[in-house]
Design brief:
This protein is mostly helical and 384 residues long. It has a single domain (3-376), classed as Orthogonal Bundle (Ammonium transporter fold). The chain is built from 13 helices and two strands; from the N terminus they run H-H-E-E-H-H-H-H-H-H-H-H-H-H-H. The protein has helices at 3-31, 37-64, 97-115, 125-140, 147-158, 174-193, 201-229, 234-248, 257-281, 290-308, 326-357, 364-369, 371-376, and strands at residues 67-68, 72-73. Helix 1 runs antiparallel to helix 6 (174-193) and helix 8 crosses helix 9 (257-281).
């Protein structure tokens, strides 16, 4: 066991925790209308708590326990039975097994919290709780990279917000969103560099790639928006940061800084136009652009790993297409397609089940009043 590695992974665990609460809570909270901010923040907090318990009781065992047919783990580690202070030879041989479990817990918690952005301002709190529990068990546990596709399914199934396309629905507090962006950016260093499971060169590589992609994503989004709409926006810069971060995540430990810049830049362009065309096409109401930012950049990031990965950067990985290994690109694309199909089918089934049990949407009157009052009987602001 290595105390330096253990300290770094524990620190990274705390950083990823800060991504969900308060990072994502503030990022999303500032983007909704003022009558929904408490309900939006509440969703991130409660999903974090709920998934933490599920992960400890059965989730970790199902995700990382001894395989059953190579598809899913067994219940051998249920309740963290056998998950203690000794290292596991596969899951971080230089850190306690329990520390690895905690690090993975934070990933499990933020993933369903990201989906709440697609259903903001209209989903029942009871429905959210049931959905998050079932989704984390049935979708996240076997397949970990799913929030963007699942967000699209959620937005389509639950339907558009009342007045969407006709009423103006601007973010009510962009400083909150910027503060959330900063906390997400800060925490993302733990998300990516912590995945090296040690204080080592791979962690440094991932740290650098994370910064390069985030900065490039923000600047490219800003320039594209400036050219397209005449003025750059604060929300656009914040969105570009997150697009770059999400896109570089799969590749961060396997690429050099120039590749990270390219990935962040392309993500800024792709996600800008994904968000723009969502508003123009009016097919679905992805309230807080969970699909346009996390979904699009996530899929692109998986494909980009198959292009830019280099064994010269990380010998434990594989070369991508640009380094002579075309097969890796095919592998990445196949994985992305399989995950998308699994996520679409599973999320649709869960949503239909939740709708049958408790109903997905608040009533039209409750939506008009806002989730703060209708779901929690509280208000964030005491005066207009």
């Amino acid at each position: 066991m290595d105390t330096g590695d253990t300290a770094w992974v524990l620190t990274s665990t705390a950083l990823v925790l800060a991504m969900t609460m308060p990072g994502l809570a503030l990022f999303y909270g500032g983007m909704v209308r003022r009558k929904n901010i408490l309900g939006t923040i509440m969703q991130s907090i409660v999903v974090l708590c709920l998934v933490s318990l599920i992960w400890i009781l059965v989730g970790y065992s199902l995700a990382f326990g001894p395989d059953q047919g190579g598809l899913i783990g067994s219940l051998e580690w249920a309740g963290l039975n056998g998950v203690g202070g000794a290292p596991h030879p596969t899951y971080g041989p230089t850190i306690p097994h329990q520390v690895f479990m905690l690090f993975q817990l934070m990933f499990a918690a933020i993933t369903p919290a990201l989906i709440t952005g697609a259903v903001a301002e209209r989903m029942k709190f009871s429905a959210l709780l049931l959905f998050a529990a079932l989704w984390s068990l049935c979708i996240y546990v076997p397949v970990h990279i799913t929030s963007g596709v699942s967000s699209l399914v959620c937005a389509i199934v639950i339907g558009k917000r009342k007045g969407w396309g006709a009423d103006h629905m601007p973010p009510h507090n962009l400083p909150f969103t910027l503060l959330g962006t900063g906390l997400l950016w800060f925490g993302w260093f733990g998300f990516n560099a912590g995945s090296a499971l040690g204080a080592n060169g791979v962690a440094g590589t991932a740290f650098l790639a994370t910064q390069a992609a985030a900065a490039t994503g923000a600047l490219v989004w800003m320039v594209v928006e400036w050219m397209h709409r005449g003025k750059p926006s604060v929300l656009g810069v914040a969105s570009g940061v997150v697009a770059g971060l999400a896109a570089v995540t799969p590749a961060s430990g396997y690429i050099g800084p120039f590749s990270a810049v390219l990935i962040g830049g392309v993500a800024g362009v792709l996600c800008y136009y994904a968000v723009y065309w969502k508003g123009r096409m009016s097919y679905y109401d992805d309230s807080l652009d969970s699909v346009g930012i996390h979904g699009v950049s996530g899929v692109f990031g998986i494909i980009a790993t198959g292009l830019f990965a280099s064994k010269a950067i990380n010998a434990a990985g594989a070369d991508g297409l640009f380094f002579g290994n075309a097969g890796q690109l095919g592998t990445q694309a196949l994985m992305a397609g399989a995950v998308a199909l699994f996520s679409v089918a599973g999320t649709w089934i869960i949503l239909k089940l939740v709708d049958a049990v408790v109903g997905l949407r608040v009533s039209s009157e409750e939506e008009q009043v806002g989730l703060d009052l209708s779901q929690h009987n509280e208000q964030a602001y005491s005066h207009e």
